[in-house]
Amino acid sequence: MPLATLPIKIFADGASLEGIAECCRKDYVAGLTTNPTLMRKAGVSDYEKFARAALEIVGERPISFEVFSDEMPEMRRQALLIRRWGRNVFVKVPVTNTRGESTAGLVADLAAEGVRLNVTALLTLDQVRTVAAALNPAVPSVVSVFAGRVADTGVDPEPLMRAAKEALAPNPSVELLWASVREVFNIHQAVRCGTPIVTVTHDILAKAIQMDGRELGALSLDTVKMFRNDAVASGFSL
What we know:
Radius of gyration: 20 Å
Largest sheet: 8 strands, parallel, barrel
Order of helices and strands: EHEHHEHEHEHEHHEHEHH
Structural class: alpha/beta
Number of strands: 8
Number of domains: 1
């Protein structure tokens, strides 16, 4: 099924300005996300300069920028600064700091001040329930559950995502996001779970555009041709 027809909002996840611009040329890309790890990989050194350049590209689409302090007061200061960059900005706050201390109190404080939040790096249903209780029903927000990381541990993430959706249902201003997509199939899993948003890295989004819905017999033939061409190019003989 073409990406544009899927009943889910697709957010592009990355930190390459060129990649962000390419994604924004796709009408079905409904929003953008990024994080410090992606920014480091892309060679970003000036956080605010990058963010303002990205905002020029994305227009009115929602985009999330993450705080990077490990201390609650500084997280709060950064969050209030980031929110001023645009009406379409969501501030990403991790579910804990590196010491495992919950940010629920900070989330409640920022939500009460009207900050649009994207609470990130959740992997358990208890975390979802704690964050749900902290969010402001009057303010749009996102809860990013890293379903791909759950799957990396050998656990099926679909039951978690269905339960997370149910836990967030009483607050219609909160949207569940399927994060850490590893393969094109994960997008369809997110659809199957009724997840409102899925965030997809630029490379997997490009792969989905190329591969999603391809006829498998034709793909089999292309694979055989690839093996043959590479064997010839390598000059193999026996």
